[in-house]
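Chain X:
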Amino acid sequence: MTVGIEYRYSQFEKEDFSDVFPIPIGLATTTPSFHTVRIDAKYKFN
């Protein structure tokens, strides 16, 4: 039996939504990022 853990951090490009909405440039921006933790357990039958 094996047990594992994996951590992943993903950060994506900054996005400006000011052109979609009638607001000043740079007021509606976002930099999406994710933290992901994965735990797995495997059992091997012989």
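Chain Y:
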Amino acid sequence: MNLSNAIFIPGPTNLPERIRRAIDLPTVDHRSPNFASDLKAIFRQVQNILKTDNGQIFIFPATGTGGWEAAIANTLSRGDRVLACRHGVFSEKWIHLCQHFGLEVDVIECDWRGPANPDLIEAKLRSDPRGEIKAVLVTHNETATGVRSDISAVRQAIDSAGHSAMLFVDGVSSIASMDFEMDTWGVDIAVAGSQKGFMLPAGLAILGVSQKAIASGATADLPRFFFDFRQMMQTTSSGGFPYTPPMQLLAGLNESCKILLEEGLDAVASRHFFIAEGVRRAADAWNLEVCAHDRSFASDTVTTIFVPEGRDSNQLTLHLHQKYQMSFGVGLGQFAGQVFRIGHLGQLSIPNMLAGLATIEMAMRDLDYPINAGVGVAAAQEWYRIPISVKPAAGLLSECGVISDE
């Protein structure tokens, strides 16, 4: 039986051994003084990772989808208008969630091979002089397409329009992996999930919420109970939880934050870019097209690659799983059957990534793709031989084997 952990999907990610040890806990008393102290420490560390001084941290037993729901349920009322760009499966799902809650969603249709469009956002807000649009929803990193949006540019668009709309950002597949600056970018709610950059099992929705967004809750009338900011703040302020918390996951989050902050957030972002660029160069060597039209918006956590016309990408990912016991992401939405996705976030080393690329090459040759053996791996190797621009600290990299020149 093959028990190797050959996962190259864009989440859930591989678990570092330090985190696996941290979550291996017996039952813990969540009413104890020790838990109260630990919870406050976790909140401070998450603030540092989100780069916010004043944002309130909320942690719910859920996934990123629960975080989306918490964001809108605590700040908006039935019939409110929100503005959202649709440029991938996950931006579309957030739109559908809002519609299920009775919100009126103004949808900007964007190219799925590009980012959310700040110019179209600004134009739409300028056409709303009465300020009826209460929030702008943006997916920072669209996991289905491997395209990153410029959140700073979206905030500039809101400000240039002279509009008061809040800015809600889905950072589920970017936060704790790519640069994210909640305060500098003027983000009112940032949503993350434990199973991606935080390198944990799925089960925690992690939110950073501005004071403006919290204040909007005074008039919000959408139903919420489990995801209620008010009851969560009342209990977490004293180090408790309004219901039984997932103790083992919180212990893992504590350790995850330590790992990330030990490495340094600049080094974390640099490492993800470095590994992602090797994947993109491999795709170029295979003569396969990366989904992102503009490489300056290419994701550093997932690369989406088109298979040749007439091929079924699902056949490739199925073959990889069945013959080589390796998992890669399938195509989603309008790209189903046309693309495969390579996740490269969390704990991942250069040797791991090269093994994944080599296995893709074997699978493509098995299926008679028009590629030469070794070309993608060689292109990635040449890139990976270059020293990383930001020197990683000890911590995660010493564990997963990424090496940089001294």
